[in-house]
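>> received
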Amino acid sequence: MGSFKYAIRDGSRLILRHWGLSALTILTSMAVFYLIGASVLLVLNARHIVSALEDELSVQAYLSPRANPDQVAQRVRLVPHIADVNVITKEKALERLSARMGDWSGVLELLGENPLPESLEIKIDKASSAEAVATSLLSITEISDVVYAGKLAEKLSQFSRFAGQFSLAILVVAITASAVVLFNTIRIAVYSKEEEIGIMLMVGATPTFVAMPFVLQGVILGGLGSLGASTLLALSYRSIIERLKDLLTFVPFIENRTMVIELGLILVGAGATVSLIASLVAVETFTKRAMKPL
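>> returned
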């Protein structure tokens, strides 16, 4: 218990003694872990968008005027990678178009006869199958044209993979930068008490006892930085998503607040862990050298 009180007291003194360096370390750690959290949210949103798009992805096959929609639908159901087929009559197609046009739907009355063709709305199992399905559908003589958003889904899928790789690179660089900053901060604190530590080791203090205040200092600084990053991330994410929703109305972003809080807790744990490791390495390097016989 006495050792723990000593560690808290001395660790607090070290933070206050080097308050400028401590503040810089907290700000650096905060920036690093905010960047990590933002990159993770980018990857999660990219994958969520791709998944939602794949669930809603459909291929629209337009039929020639003399085709029998039900018969063509039966043939289409035999094509690989097709999950469902719905017949869209000319009347249903006109209703959908009228609903999309809203206040401008009255313009359709000027057309007189319904010019829209009958079509098949085809659900596929995954975005990567869209091109193969479209090629198969075009081989059916009763189908005059095929329209699908497979290219968009493919591009989003590629973006999701790129975002994941980019996030991993950011994660490695950011954690390394945070560890280096914390390592140097603790090393400076150790060197400022070099003579005192040397005397303590000579009179029988254990390396663990000597290291505890410095390790606690590092954990506090790293923990405060990651906690600040988590708080800022939680506050800024909602406002950023609201602005993106105004710009990209139909894009399904993640709005789960619990997920952001859980990510924040993970960041705090990661910050404390990185700080602990960096502090232990910095103190151990010094104590090993100090304990070597002259």
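>> The beta strands are 58-63, 82-88, 119-124, 143-148.
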